[in-house]
């Protein structure tokens, strides 16, 4: 059980800490206990992969998890157009786009292979789920906008752009 | 609860606008007027001490201060209660008014308080005579024994009423044969007897009829026909009385074939007819001294005799002859007026215009009866005939005359409607009373202040010359900089509540920062055109309209319409064209145009302005009356006049205007009313050219409005055209009600006497289709509807005197109607660009709601702003003599009958309440009395929020109103000083802390 919680820093391939020089007065030393066994390493690797996969899924659905909290905040902020409600609505509207834009970087640590970690093709299912969840957040934001009357859906919102020509007849009065 | 709701409503309505006391006199002005005085004998202006009493054409009885011309008091009579006669006595003024002289009123001379009001007979019993005040006379007699005054009133031409000071009737005498051939017109009283003198009709001529009554009981003493043979109804007869001691002797004088005859009246009416042989007279007239025994007789050659009746000697003789009184090439007809001097001796003033001196001549005749001597002396005074026309009536203050003419006071009433008081040859004051009957008025914008270059740039200009010129151009720079600094620091900008009047000494005609200062050009039926400064009500210029060829025969000019043909944005500067109908005294009617520069009053058609200015001569555009006149909406703003043959005549009649007009012709549609009495109808017309018939385009009828029989057109009110900011009304649920913006809509008011109803129609004048029609009851058979149509909004007012059951009441109603396209929200037919022949023009939905108005109204108008974005309020003049605005929010026809839902609240709709609040905060006219308003003219200013309002009727009133609040200017309590200080403080703080921070950073680097 305790084994599960071993911290395996070694697996962090791209950690910048790994290439740091040792502090002055310390010599680099290799751990004297050699890797216990190859089988054990393989098991660790596979559990590590599944762990990454799980974490990737966690990340994919994290926007959906925060939705209830955000909905509660929306409810609390009220229907008026005020600074707080506007802040929350902006957050709701902007964060999905920000998340989707930074999606590849966010999923990079969970990539199963070291090559091409930032490619869109890595972890496709998770990414689709991630996009869907973000869209869900966006939808909530838009729904809030609509309920606040900020979406130009009615004809009244486009009235200013309507124009009329002159009447063909001329009546003098 | 109801009260609370009303309060809430009103507070909603007036948050935008309520007149502050500090704004009174700054944003508004008010000119109190009395109207042009009557000049018929019983009602002509007279001096009474230091007062001038006058009854006017606007049906006002007024007392003016003779020293400065201010109104001491005035009493406005109803239109159906015309002033027939007034008389003054000690410190009270009495009047007889109404048909036949039905009502007696007495006012305190100094305050104008009504002391006594008494109906002598019912107004419906009043008989009409020609002239109107014939047979009506009012006498004040003093009863020395009772030390009180009494009234003797002759009314209806046949009854005499004797009242005491408190208005109790002492006796009444009615002619036994009422309505017979005898019509009494003169009333003379002495302490014991009342003499009634009148004309009796006999075969081919008139005879005199005299009746005497006992002054104490009113019993008939005698009634006698004097065998006079008066042929000429014009000269009639003169009754003079002369007092010798306690007795009064009366003498009636008349002309019979040019011979002057007289009869001395005694109570028993036994006397002889005397004749003055030898001299042939043309006419005789009473000139104000009839109670003193003098009258005027004009000889056939034109010489005027002052006749005197001597009661002691029973003799009648001329005591003075004005030999040269005949009108001729060198002088005009003379006005004679008599008055008693301070010494009780008669004075006669003669005023005439002398062409030789180009001045008016005043002659005073001083008569000393006891010595039997008379002497005349005169002086000339510089009457401005080109500014004030011709003298029409003269009133003379005999008590002001002395040894010299220094204090001689004369009051002139001129044909242009001005009242002038002259003391010797100096004009003390002048009142332009023609402004009380303005016919048409328009706002004209003023140009911006221009920076004038000191001189034009020359080609060969040396370096030093240029430097010198530029230095001289820059001489105002320090002042400008100082002003700028002051403005910047203190924030003393032009604000919306300051007066728009120019404060600088040199009064150039330039607009103020917000365009509140404009010129109101107003035309009056007295042949005078005025340019009024809208910032303070001062008359900037005035022109007398010339009669053209009709000057030889005389005539009147009646303004029909006024057009602003050029505005400030045009190169030529603002110009107006006044279209008038000139009715010459030989009954010829012409259409005359006056084309005037609105800033100066100069004639545009004239190249060189004569100085001093002559009469403004017009252009006889059409020989004959005019049917209607329009302005084309083209670049030239050509005026199209339709003459009586419906030919379209153009002004200016240039080839380019003609070409433009021809390009418009196929699309032009007109609605004309046919003024045949009994069948006043409205016909639609188009124009066509048929060279066989006429060289002009001729209008031919295309449609007629089929009204029920006997229903007559009363008024056609064109749509108030202004810019339309929004073509729809957005509802709370974001749907749109598209406004019905048919540009051809016109309001037609009708009356239908058989059914006792009034009709209101909204017509499409292109096709003649009725968009909206309502029929309302005519209160008392009179249609007195007021209506206005702006964009898609119709507001009309009527008095409802019908009530069918409990819970209903009669009262003033205001109905607000709005037209929208299609069946409901989001249904659009694009009405503003739709051809009127399309079926969809009638596809509309109307919302209407009716409200109860606390007062009747006499004029109604919507506000008008530059872009039409601000809300439109309705401005009304009510019968309380005040000007009031009704907020659009209260008049919205879509006000819900229930508690407003959230969507309706979003539209700012408030719950329907039948009663429009009578709130003092909605009154625009402060506590001024703005009486008998005929029209309200609104005009946009340069601020979108603010609309200018000019009201005319008897009085003039001007104010400005911001229906949606002054949203486009900084609030006046904005603290500019605080802002400047804060910014400056922050700047200083930055300057102080910047080196400190820099030092700190440096230190951080090191340690």
From TrEMBL, chain A:
The chain crosses the membrane at residues 72-94. One of its GO terms (cellular component) is endoplasmic reticulum membrane. The lineage of its organism: Eukaryota, Fungi, Dikarya, Basidiomycota, Agaricomycotina. It comes from the Eukaryota. It is found in: Endoplasmic reticulum membrane. It is a multi-pass membrane protein. It comes from Suillus placidus. Belongs to the EMC4 family. Keywords: Endoplasmic reticulum, Membrane, Transmembrane, Transmembrane helix. This is ER membrane protein complex subunit 4. Pfam families: EMC4. InterPro entries: TMEM85/Emc4 (IPR009445).
From TrEMBL, chain B:
The keyword Endoplasmic reticulum applies. Its main location: endoplasmic reticulum. Keywords: Endoplasmic reticulum, Glycoprotein, Membrane, Signal, Transmembrane, Transmembrane helix. InterPro entries: Beta-prop_EMC1_1st (IPR058545), EMC1 (IPR026895), EMC1_C (IPR011678), Quinoprotein_ADH-like_sf (IPR011047), WD40/YVTN_repeat-like_dom_sf (IPR015943). Residues 18-433 form the EMC1 first beta-propeller domain. The keyword Signal applies. It is a single-pass type I membrane protein. It comes from the Eukaryota. It holds the Pfam family EMC1_C. Residues 1-18 form the signal peptide. Gene3D superfamilies: YVTN repeat-like/Quinoprotein amine dehydrogenase. It is found in: Endoplasmic reticulum membrane. GO terms for cellular component: EMC complex. GO terms for biological process: protein folding in endoplasmic reticulum. Residues 790-1006 form the ER membrane protein complex subunit 1 C-terminal domain. Component of the ER membrane protein complex (EMC). Belongs to the EMC1 family. This is ER membrane protein complex subunit 1. The lineage of its organism: Eukaryota, Fungi, Dikarya, Basidiomycota, Agaricomycotina.
